[in-house]
Write a structure and sequence with these properties.
The complex is a heterodimer. By secondary structure, chain A is α+β, with helices and mostly antiparallel strands. Helix content of chain A is 31%, strand content 18%. Chain A contains 17 helices and 22 strands. The longest helix of chain A has 18 residues. By secondary structure, chain B is an alpha/beta fold. Chain B is built from 24 helices and 21 strands. In chain B, the strands form 5 sheets. In chain B, strands 1, 2, 3, 4, 5 and 6 form a 6-stranded parallel β-sheet that branches. Classes of the chains: A alpha+beta, B alpha/beta. Chains A and B meet through helix 4 of A and helix 6, helix 19, helix 20 and strand 19 of B. Bound molecules: siroheme (SRM), flavin-adenine dinucleotide (FAD), flavin mononucleotide and iron/sulfur cluster (SF4).
Chain lengths: 569, 604
């Protein structure tokens, strides 16, 4: 034990030996005897934006047939702020149909994933994503991931400015290794020995690193849940700067109290042109102080808690060479998407469409893939992925509204109208069958679970109540469940840990309430609390607030759960 | 070199030695230290005639018959693996042989050979066995499981008491082993997520048993397993009724075809075989096929017919005695003559060879009856049909690796043509074989002395497409069992990588273990241009020729129509290039190989 704690993890050894992320990926891709790649290469391909997975639905059956698991690859793209042109959308659609099971998965970080790409199609797929002027580099792995930015802001000037900052940060924190171009794009070969990673160094970060920008009053990015959160501060229609938050994160491990979700701590305020430097220096502090001996303890949130926020702020400011200004006040209204049409000050329209489970496919009545393709063929504005797995058709001229709406309608795509508020705000992670870490269903289970919840809400006259429900297949928290009002965290097939009492603003952690419950047991708890809520709610108090005031009064919350809805305190 | 240190040094080691030891100790983690202590103890024992190692048997010779303690584990998140490694190291620390084995990689049939087994198994899902170990548990809990009287064991079950089926897998295993006659050395211990303590307790108990283990008493148990060879009274004419122990598809879901792995029992048959031999199977024609005949000719299954000196019903005759599928010249002639079918008689004229072959090529008997209806009587029919013949299947197992079993690899013949379904007789008989206990398949061994492994040290090149790979599974199992030193190279071809890579996991294990040194595959339908084994052979030409020059034996098995001739041509190309000579020289070279039995083919 004792010596284990001082030994760098195997992943660290792999990184060191990888010659800036090359490893033996090319040999692995060329090996015709298996659909998999070498074990150490699976660590490295993540940095390149692709994960080896296998179809867990058929795992046991194939083992019986003496066949290796049905290996395939998940490929994740990088789209700062989640913005695509219609032309890019059409390429995306074609690629999905050619190699990626005719499906596009919108993620909780405003980008898309393909699933089921077989090894022999992997290089082509990644090359074609690059042909779309996108990349998959650094969408996974121990580096800075896709940078999020509230996609829809009535204040479009602020949105533009914020996106520009997001772009600068995303580019500024990109790895510089040429390995990606050599392996996937047949780029000319350079000798790794002569290469440098100026910012990251040869071992990159101890762990994944995430950044999001929220534009109040919308907290759709769940700005408290990321290693760095920026809260845009507006002054008469312009972007004045950002409140800087650090040390947010969701991941935890069942039964391991040393791991926990944490909300970002407010450090202060910076101007737009300081934002990149701030991100760089927070990253270098984490690079130098993050725990490389235990992956479960390697995120920035632990680096900060181990030494204290004050130490962290001091270390950061000494590296920056300037002090952060005091945080400015801000208010959030909620952390969901706003479906249907919104108009921006320039008079352009934005239509937020509901994508069930974030999965863009043709399935029966709902022909999302074809529908969005049809829209892309006539649309001249933008597409935007939301942080809640939905899609916005952005910048539509008044005159074109009808045509776009008609296309969506005729393909069975819903803008939220036909759903109950709690249903369209709900989120689930991918989980089974592709996610190797899933312990229970999530995306595939969400719809039926919500239907059962709807029945319970009905009983107590709460149909229209917007209650934020999220499900993940394991405690890693990919759908940011720990900030939801009701969260199911997968434990085993059909079994979930139940978390209650987050806020609808994404600024309070739900508390562990019961462990290892069946659906029946969960519905029983909810039914009871809905009844109590209907009877005892004060004013327009939200369900989460109600639970915190009543049921959860004496239920302990997590460590580091210290966030506030305004910077003043 | 550490040996010499120990020998020379006095009982109390001097400063320098202590320094060295401490230096070493500093560099080892806890497990390595355990191991080292055992290693050094072992050396000490060896160096001083074992007298110093307390529990060691009196004579150094006896140490040899000490059985190996195999520590099996079934894990998903690694806990069990960790514990197993710990325990094995500790056992070695006592100077005993021990190894760890992942049940996900273990060939269940081998369990019969174990005498000392310690199991560390986790439960996952909702009371299920860890991923990958399902085949093992299905085997053990299933009919096919052997008696395990010579096995002594104990089980450590890992689990999480918050689940209903707490430690289910461990419990099932323990109960089943007992039921199979194995002897429980120490009671099962179940541990919760905080398993360290209870695990340590169990290990302590088990280690006591290990110490107490008296090798001589078990000497017999560890003698190599021998197949008792009774006079082989069973034969083609007198087939052995073999129970079906397993019968499972091994092509993946969505494959363009179905290939099945069928395991039959030879227990108490006295039958033995060599790798390269085939298994003869007497089929019963599938009911659907028999039905097709009766319906087409509107005949009654219960009508009595005479066949030789037997009188039986038409249904019985068609099901068990008559050839209903394989279409040959003789049947066609008999049919044409007896019923005066002019067009067929024309087809049988000496001048019409080409047409005849074309006609025979893709037709079965049913097609002839349909093309040229003559409404025969039941008796006419049985008289014109040939007697049913057994089918042969290359044996895909080695007796040494699978005592009392014979495995075959069967491609199910089922296709539509001429507007009707067609069924292969034996392959469908086996594919749909009823799982009810007591049901048996009439089998016999068809020796094939022309398809034999060479001496252990000779290199072997095995070329097969589809089910043609079957005998190579037997070859490699055999070479493994004999620890044959010769290199092995397998060329395999089929349609699609995802579904048709027959025995993929087993080859992978053999590669990992170093048994299968080279492995080339060709999947014809995964890309625009078709790729076959012969293409791979040409691509590897230089190396392949080098192997031939080193005395390699070359085997070809599978399709006779296309694969075998194409491979033959490819080999000639390779040799021609290798020799830098002309075709004639290449042909002579290959001819010599044949004569030296270094180029053997089993094609069908
Ligand atoms: C696709 C996505 C969920 C979704 O339904 O949209 C996702 C899917 C996976 N996440 Fe995640 N994560 C996704 C957002 C998140 C978020 C939310 C966010 O970033 O806003 C979190 C919580 C925030 C955080 O990071 O703390 C998150 C925390 C994790 C963790 C836990 C990290 C930790 O600190 O403990 C893991 C496991 C790990 O890293 O070891 C993980 C790992 C995974 C993997 C790659 C499983 C694996 O490592 O083998 C999942 C792939 C499943 C599949 O088949 O696609 N994912 N993951 C999201 C992709 C975002 C993106 O485009 O980059
Ligand atoms: C030495 C030897 C080893 C063998 N090893 C194996 C082995 O390991 N695995 C294995 O699966 N088989 C093996 N075979 C082949 C096997 O013996 C049978 O021939 C095969 O299983 C078909 O038998 P059946 O009774 O199912 O079909 P049958 O009742 O014999 O019907 C087969 C007939 O159907 C027709 N036919 C079959 N397929 C088609 C088609 N696609 N299109 C048109 N007509 C068709 C042909 O006329 C063929 O004669 C081996 C054969 C030999 C001689
Ligand atoms: C998804 C999952 C399901 C589990 N299901 C069970 C179960 O049904 N019964 C049980 O006793 N333990 C169950 N466990 C607990 C494991 O058996 C326990 O964690 C054990 O230590 C794992 O050992 P391993 O690391 O060797 O796989 C489960 C664990 C996981 C992660
Ligand atoms: S939360 Fe767990 S199950 Fe869901 S996608 Fe993330 S890692 Fe997989």
């Amino acid at each position: 034990m004792a010596d284990k704690a001082t030994k760098p993890t195997h992943v660290e050894e792999v990184k060191v030996a990888s010659r800036l992320l090359r490893g033996s990926i090319e040999q692995s891709l060329a090996d015709p005897l298996t659909g998999a790649i070498a074990e150490d290469d699976t660590v490295l391909t993540k940095f390149h934006g692709t994960y080896q997975q296998d179809d867990r639905d058929v795992r046991a059956d194939r083992a019986r047939r003496l066949l290796e698991p049905a290996y395939s690859f998940m490929v994740r793209a990088r789209i700062t702020g989640g913005i695509l042109t219609p032309a890019q959308w059409l390429d995306l659609d074609r690629l999905a149909r050619d190699h990626c099971q005719s499906a596009i998965r919108v993620t909780t970080r405003q980008t898309f994933q393909f699933h089921g790409v077989v090894k022999r199609d992997l290089k082509t797929t990644i090359r074609r994503i690059n042909d779309m002027l996108l990349t998959t580099l650094a969408t996974c792995g121990d580096v800075n991931r896709n940078v999020m930015c509230t996609p829809l802001a009535e204040a479009s000037a602020v949105h533009r400015a914020a996106c520009a900052v997001a772009d600068a940060i995303s580019d500024g924190l990109m790895p510089k290794t040429r390995a990606y171009h050599e392996i996937w794009l047949d780029g000319e070969r350079v000798t790794p020995e002569q290469e440098v990673e100026p910012l990251y160094g040869p071992t990159y970060l101890p762990r994944k690193f995430k950044i999001a920008i929220a534009i109040p009053p919308w907290n759709d990015v769940d700005v408290f849940a990321h290693d760095i959160g920026y809260v845009a501060i507006e002054e008469n229609g312009e972007l004045a700067g950002f409140n800087v938050l650090a040390g947010g994160g969701m991941g935890a491990t069942h039964g391991d109290p040393a791991t926990y979700p944490r909300l970002g701590s407010v450090l202060g305020f910076c101007t737009p042109d300081q934002a990149l430097a701030v991100a760089e220096q927070i990253l270098t502090v984490q690079r130098d102080y993050g725990d490389r001996t235990e992956r479960k303890h390697a995120r920035l949130k632990y680096t900060i808690d181990d030494r204290g926020v004050d130490w962290f702020k001091a270390e950061l400011e000494s590296r920056l060479g300037f002090a952060l200004a005091p945080a400015a006040p801000f208010r959030f209204e909620h952390n969901g998407d706003r479906f249907g049409w919104q108009c921006d000050p320039e008079g352009l329209w934005h239509l937020t469409l509901f994508i069930p489970g974030g999965r863009i496919v043709d399935a029966g009545e709902r022909r999302l893939l074809s529908g969005l393709k049809a829209i892309a063929e006539v649309h001249s504005g933008e597409f935007r992925f939301t942080p809640n797995q939905n899609v916005i058709v952005s910048k539509v001229a008044e005159a074109d509204k009808h045509a776009i709406e008609a296309l969506a309608g005729s393909h069975g795509i819903d803008a939220g109208q036909t759903l109950l508020p709690f249903q369209r705000d709900a989120m689930a992670c991918v989980a089974l069958p592709t996610c190797g870490l899933a312990m229970a269903e999530a995306e595939r289970y969400l719809p039926e679970f919500l239907d059962r919840v709807a029945e319970r809400l009905d009983r107590h006259g709460l149909r229209e109540e917007p209650i934020n429900i999220r499900i993940t297949g394991c405690p890693n928290g990919c759908a940011r469940p720990y900030v939801a009002e009701v969260a199911l965290i997968g434990r085993a097939p059909g079994r979930y840990a139940l978390m209650l009492g987050g806020s609808r603003l994404g600024n309070r952690l739900a508390r562990p309430f019961r462990d290892n419950l069946s659906e029946a047991q969960i519905l029983e708890v909810l039914d009871g609390e809905f009844a109590a809520f209907a009877a005892g709610r004060q004013g327009d108090e939200s369900f989460g607030d109600f639970l915190v005031r009543t049921l959860l009064r004496d239920v302990p919350t997590w460590p580091g759960a210290s966030a506030t809805n305004s910077a003043s305190s | 070199m550490s040996v010499s240190i120990l020998k020379k040094s006095p009982p109390a080691p001097d400063e320098r030695l202590l320094g060295e030891l401490n230096g070493l100790a500093g560099r080892l983690d806890q497990q390595q230290l355990w191991w080292a202590s055992g290693y050094l103890a072992g050396l000490a024992a060896a160096a001083s005639g074992a007298a110093t190692a307390p529990q060691a048997p009196a004579t150094a010779g006896a140490a040899a018959v000490r059985p190996t303690w195999t520590v099996f584990y079934a894990t998903e998140t690694g806990n069990s693996r960790g514990i197993a490694a710990e325990l094995a190291t500790a056992i070695q620390g006592l100077g005993f042989e021990s190894r760890t084995v992942d049940l996900a990689e273990f060939k269940p049939a081998q369990l019969k050979k174990e005498t000392r087994a310690l199991f560390v198994v986790a439960t996952h899902g909702l009371g299920e066995a860890p991923d990958g170990t399902e085949p093992f548990f299905e085997f053990l809990l299933g009919e096919r499981a052997p008696r395990l009287e010579s096995l002594e064991y104990s089980v450590l079950a890992l689990g999480d008491s918050s689940y209903e089926d707490y430690c289910e897998t461990g419990r099932q295993l323990d109960a089943r082993l007992e039921a199979l006659g194995a002897r429980r050395l120490a009671p099962r211990v179940e541990c919760d997520v905080d398993f360290e303590e209870s695990s340590a307790g169990w290990q302590a108990t088990v280690l006591d048993r290990v110490k107490a283990d008296d090798a001589d008493a078990h000497g017999a148990a560890v003698q190599p397993h021998l197949v008792t060879v009774a006079p082989a009274s069973y034969s083609r004419r007198n087939p052995f009724p073999a129970a079906v122990l397993a019968n499972q598809p091994i092509t993946g879901l969505g494959s363009s075809k179905t290939v099945r792995h069928v395991v039959l029992s030879l227990e108490d048959s006295g039958l033995t075989y060599e790798p390269g031999d085939s298994l003869g199977v007497w089929p019963t024609n599938p009911p659907a096929l028999v039905g097709q005949f009766l319906e087409l000719l509107s005949l009654d299954a219960d009508e009595r017919v005479v066949l030789g000196d037997d009188s039986l019903t038409l249904g019985e005759a068609l099901a068990h005695r008559l050839e209903l599928t394989q279409l040959g010249r003789t049947f066609l002639a008999g049919y044409a003559e007896r019923f005066a079918v002019a067009p067929l008689q024309a087809l049988l004229e000496p001048g019409a060879r080409v047409e005849l072959n074309a006609y025979l090529a893709d037709r079965q008997i049913i097609d002839v009856l349909a093309d040229h209806p003559v409404s025969p009587s039941a008796q006419d029919l049985v008289e014109v049909l040939k007697r049913l013949t057994p089918r042969l299947y290359s044996i895909s197992s080695s007796l040494a690796a699978n005592p009392d079993e014979v495995h075959v690899t069967v491609a199910v013949v089922r296709y539509d043509a001429f507007g009707r379904p067609h069924f292969g007789s034996a392959s469908n008989f086996l594919a749909d074989f009823p799982t009810k206990p007591g049901a048996t398949v009439p089998v016999f061994i068809a020796e094939n002395v022309r398809f034999r492994l060479p001496a252990d040290e000779a290199p072997v090149v095995m070329i097969g497409a589809g089910t043609g790979v079957a005998p190579y599974r037997a070859f490699l199992e055999e070479r493994d069992a004999r620890s044959a030193a010769g290199d092995n190279w397998l060329f395999f071809g089929d349609r699609n990588f995802d579904t048709d890579f027959l025995y993929q996991l087993e080859w992978a294990r053999m590669r990992k273990q170093g048994l299968l040194g080279r492995h080339d595959v060709a999947f014809s339908r995964d890309q625009a241009e078709k790729v076959y084994v012969q293409n791979r052979i040409r691509q590897r030409g230089a190396d392949l020729f080098a192997w031939l020059e080193r005395g390699a034996h070359v085997y070809v098995c599978g399709d006779a129509k296309h694969m075998a001739p194409d491979v033959h041509e490819a080999l000639l190309d390779v040799i021609e290039a290798g020799l830098g000579a002309d075709r004639a020289a290449a042909e002579a070279y290959l001819e010599t190989l044949k004569q030296q039995h270094r180029y053997q083919r089993d094609v069908y």
